[in-house]
Amino acid sequence: MFYIKQILLFLNLNLVIFTKILKKENMMDWHKKDTQECFQILDSNEKGLRQDEVEARLEKYGHNKLTEGKSVSKIGIFFAQLKNPIIYVILFTAIITFIFQKYTDTIVIGIVVFFNTIIGFIQEYKAETSLEALKSMVSQKCTVLRQSTDEENNSEITVDAELIVPGDIIILESGDKIPADARIIESVNLQVDESMLTGESLAVKKLSRSLDGETTIGDRINMGYAGTIVIQGRGKAIVVETGMNTEIGKIAGLIQKTDNKTSPIRTKVLNLVKILLLVALFSSFFTFLIGFFQGIAIYEMFFFAVASAISAIPEGLPVIITITLAIGVNRMAKRNAIIRELQAVDTLGASTIICSDKTGTLTTNQMTARQIYIDNKFIEITGKGHNLNGKFLFNNKEIEIDRTNSLHHLLYNATLCNNARLKLDKNNVHLKKINNRNIIDEPKPVDNQINIGIDRNEIAGNEIDPNAGINNEKVASISGDPTEGALLVLAAKKNIFKEEIEKKLPRVDEIPFNSTQKYMVTFHKKSSEKVDVYMKGAPEIVLEFCSNIYLNGEVINLSDDKKVEIIQDQLLRLMVSARSTLRNLAFAYQRINYEDIEKFKETIENREELFNFIGLVGMIDPPRTGVKKSIDLCKRAGIKVIMATGDHRITAEAIGREIGIHKDDNFIITGDKLKSLNKEELDEKIENTSIFARVSPEDKFEIVSSLKRNNHVVCMTGDGVNDAPALKMGDIGISMGKAGTDVAKESSDMILADDDFSSIVNAVEEGRVVFQNLRKVIKYLICTNIGEDAVIFCSLLLFPLLFEEIFLIFTPIQIIWVNLVTDGVLDITLAMEGKESDVMSMPPRKPDESLFDKQIFVNIIFIGTLMMVGTLTMFIYGMHTYDSRIKAQTIAFTTMALFQVFNALNCRSRTKSFFELGIFTNKYLIGAILVSIFFQFSVVHLFFFNTLLGTTPLLIIDWALIFAVSSTVFIGDEIRKLILKYKNK
User: Fold this and answer.
1) pLDDT by residue (tens digit) across 706-748?
2) Are 589 and 413 in contact (CB under 8 A)?
3) What angle do CA 136, 138, 141 make, to 5 degrees?
4) Would residue 101 count as lying in a domain?
5) Are strands 530-537 and 519-525 parallel, antiparallel or unpaired?
6) In this structure, are 727 and 672 located in the same domain?
7) Distance between CA 559 and CA 569 in Å, rounded?
8) Quick check: helix, strand or coil at residue 908?
9) Is the domain of 861 the same as that of 962?
């Protein structure tokens, strides 16, 4: 443990630790114990625990849930918002104003700080509650055995998974999520999907026997682990570890100890703040010196220095940065991307690589039948996923189904030789009764049929209604193997449903599928004397068992040459037509006597040719709608998309080609090849690699590490516990809201509510928009502060010469009004600007790219100079016209405020004219301009504000001159943009 702690302290969570955790044995080697030893150690038995024992163990072991890591209280989130250098300076300014008894200024500054703190608190707290809402959507139940108080009887009850304890006996059935680490004590064809823990995509068959020797988690076939899914079969298990003591809990504990990543925006803002603080210090120091050498009292010079500091610092910057990021977060949430931390918004916008899983993100994670081969022809199947809408097309004409054709035989086979279940919404009525009979008919025999079909008179009077009562959406849910589920959906498109036909043809025996034999056989009672036998499996295996083929209503001999043709020609065509992504299954049929079942099973084991071949079905996990378009958008934006999947190379390559990720000159690296590469070799190859196939979560960690060594900003997706290190390693970790585990969500920066790749691209787009808007807002604020500081500094030099005395052109509270009220209304609306047309047509910005570039800096100096000259000119006009300092201050103050109004129009775009953008495309800004002008008019003409801010009413001629002078910043910048436009042509 000491070694682990040291690694965590100095190297953070890494692959070495992660691998060791996966291989580390439990404190008790439960997989080595037989079931009786487990009962003895846990003081339990086959009947389960009594309720009083459960309560006692809850006290001892605690609830079966993962801790949330270092929880941050509401108060902690609130005060965390104060950790900002600008806030420190503003608070220092508040202290100075309080010391000099400028209490109004102190109160206003305090309100600013409080407002910023509230905004940041609301957004971060909202992000955390969004995560909690996602967790509540997946609250888990489980079935346990509990003894009665007399210990003679027991019963199955359903309880919250949090309430199970070591020693509980849990019941496992298809579709269940295993609630805790448990030792299997009974199993009937029990298969578990452990991919979220081990990364292995194939289901693991579970047995109850004990194991010898050292085994990794993936090889412990007598253990069930928390969070894994029962795919097939049923069983019982005794709970051995709960909560943080489970394998998931161990990994979660490590992840909670990792440090937070630093966002580029944090670094940029910190650098900007340092510059602004230096400017404020410089301005205050020289203001103090000027006044000191002119013989002004120390008290007055402190006051002047404070005013200069206030003018140099954009007090609203912390607020507006938080608001801009929050606007981005809200926009992303509307596009199904939940951001857990505000600063992640900016990192998304700088992304250069999106490293995405295939299944469920690029694809639908819903196997779909695309093609059927029967009667020497190929039938195209329309529709996608679990939607029951779809057509069967041959030469673009829909194929009808009846009891005599091969299609009906194949669909019956696909439905009955199947362990999955198709469920419809209660409002979906999928069967229609005609003459009190079900519409489903069994396949009808042909005259020369050999040992296949049924008596054509057995089910007279039934008919098929292709529109039988399914509602418009026709969407089903599948429990069980996804491939078998696709077959049920295929049959349901022709209104053939398993639950109905099984009533007539109940299953009486079966030979289960396994990965070695690669076929499955089911026996269905046709009558008291006859049994229909259905086989499905790998095409090359099923054909070995077939002596005949069902072809155009007849059963004919299946020659060896025909078998070769089906494998080498038809199957190949099936794969090529679907870009090699199909999972292909073959189907065969036979009818036997009831008493011959056992004998027939023996002949199957001897691999005798007993069946009639029907046809092939090709299935695919299709790409999600819009994925190809999103990837094209990424390419245009200079973002590379890499697929990292546990699937086979041929499947990954085919999907990659279909969606536009992979081209002929790209590399495909498999997990085995990846392990053979050293860091230098991987770093070199990865730049031209588009697909990583058959990779484990540990491999994904290495992939992300290599990309970051090559200075990429990496978005990494994941949904399993094993993906957590890679999610943490990525600059942006993206977990799945539906399929993702709690551990993956805790490790991520962003959660996809819809598990869709397109939502990642949408989030990247919004991240770029946020950065653009941040630049607009910061440019706007800095223009104000440069103009104000230049006005104050120059006034201290000029006023002694012009008026033979020194005084402030603005009071501190007037500066705060401009910085917070006028600017505060307008800058928020700039943060709400929509995307510019070229936002996804530019390459990703460099992570260290400053918020300022040369063009922005020159533009700020230009605008600031216009503000300074215009404001000083208007002050001098006021003094000469009215010989009143308060009148002149009011004119200068109002001029500066309206400069901000016109400058807001400039800042909507760096290059495009305000009129080119459209006057009303940002209605919020137009509204804010009217509100700002109204506020300024009120400040000038209402007695309350005259007293508070030291202003006085102005004449119409004064307002006209103010508008004319302040509009020069707008006119000047429009001329600059026009020159730039023609220069670029």
Assistant:
1) 999 999 999 998 877 667 778 888 889 898 887 776 667 777 8
2) yes
3) 105
4) yes
5) antiparallel
6) yes
7) 15
8) coil
9) yes
The one-letter amino acid at 152: E
Over residues 746-759, the pLDDT tens digits come to 778 888 888 888 88
**What is the predicted pLDDT for the residue at 748?**
84
Residues 372 and 389 in one domain: yes
Kindly state the tokens that stand for 662. Answer: 């992979």
Of 537, 506, 523, 526, the C-alpha closest to 597 is: 523
Backbone φ and ψ for 530, nearest 5 degrees, come out as -115, 150
Question: What is the domain range of residue 632?
Answer: 351-364+624-754
**For the purposes of burial, counting CB atoms within 10 Å of the CB of 774, is it exposed (0-12), middle (13-18) or buried (19 or more)?**
buried
Question: Is 464's pLDDT higher than 60?
Answer: no
Given a contact cutoff of 8 angstroms between Cβ atoms, the answer to whether 304 and 799 are in contact is no
Report d(CA 464, CA 422) in Å as an integer. Answer: 20
- Least confident range from 143-147, 273-277, 887-891: namely 273-277
As annotated, the active-site residues are: 357
DSSP assignment of 514-551: -TTT-EEEEEEE-SSSEEEEEEEE-HHHHGGGEEEEEE
Q: Which two tokens stand for residue 152?
A: 């003679």
- Asked if 767 and 912 sit in the same domain, the reply is yes
Cβ 276 vs Cβ 784: under 8 Å: no
Helices of type H across 100-216: 103-136, 195-198
What's the CATH number where 98 sits? 1.20.1110.10
**Residue 109 · residue 315 · CB < 8 Å:** yes
What tokens appear for 776 in the block? 């607009």
More confident residue, 675 or 321: 675
- The per-residue pLDDT for 139 is 47
- Residue 871 parent element (H or E): helix 854-882
551 and 655 part of one domain: no
The CATH number assigned to the domain holding 208 equals 2.70.150.10
Whether 430 contacts 468, CB under 8 Å: yes
Where residue 65 falls among pLDDT bands split at 50, 70, 90? confident
pLDDT at 791 over 80: yes
Q: Based on the fold, state whether residues 116 and 209 are members of the same structural domain.
A: no
* Cβ burial 240-264 (10 Å sphere, 16+ → b, else e): bbbbbbbbbbbbbbbbbebeebebb
Q: Is 782 helix (H, G, I), strand (E, B) or coil?
A: helix
**Inside any domain, residue 268:** yes
Domain count, the chain: 4
797: left (phi over 0), alpha (psi -120 to 50) or beta: alpha
- Average pLDDT of the segment spanning 507-520: 84
In a domain, 73, yes or no: no
Let me know if residue 135 belongs to a domain: no
Average of per-residue pLDDT across 331-335: 87
Residue 359: partners with Cβ closer than 8 Å, 6 or more residues away: 365, 621, 645, 646, 647
Specify whether the backbone of 380 is left (phi greater than 0), alpha (psi in -120 to 50) or beta.
Answer: beta
Decide if pLDDT at 429 tops 60: no
Given 694, 722, 754, the domain boundary residue is: 754
Q: Which two tokens stand for residue 48?
A: 């389960």
Cβ-Cβ contacts under 8 Å for 68 (sequence gap 6 or more): 256, 746
> Does pLDDT of 985 surpass 70?
no
Task: Please spell the DSSP secondary structure of 696-732, one letter per residue.
Answer: -HHHHHHHHHHHHHTT--EEEEE-SGGGHHHHHHSSE
- Candidate ranges 196-200, 533-537, 739-743, 770-774; pick with highest mean pLDDT: 533-537
Helices (H), 804-833: 812-816, 823-831
Residues 930 and 977 in one domain: yes
Beta strands in 204-336 (DSSP E): 204-205, 223-224, 229-241
Residue 806 has a CB neighbour count (10 Å cut-off) of 19
Q: Do 948 and 836 reside in the same domain of the chain?
A: yes
Q: CATH number of the domain that 638 lies in? A: 3.40.50.1000
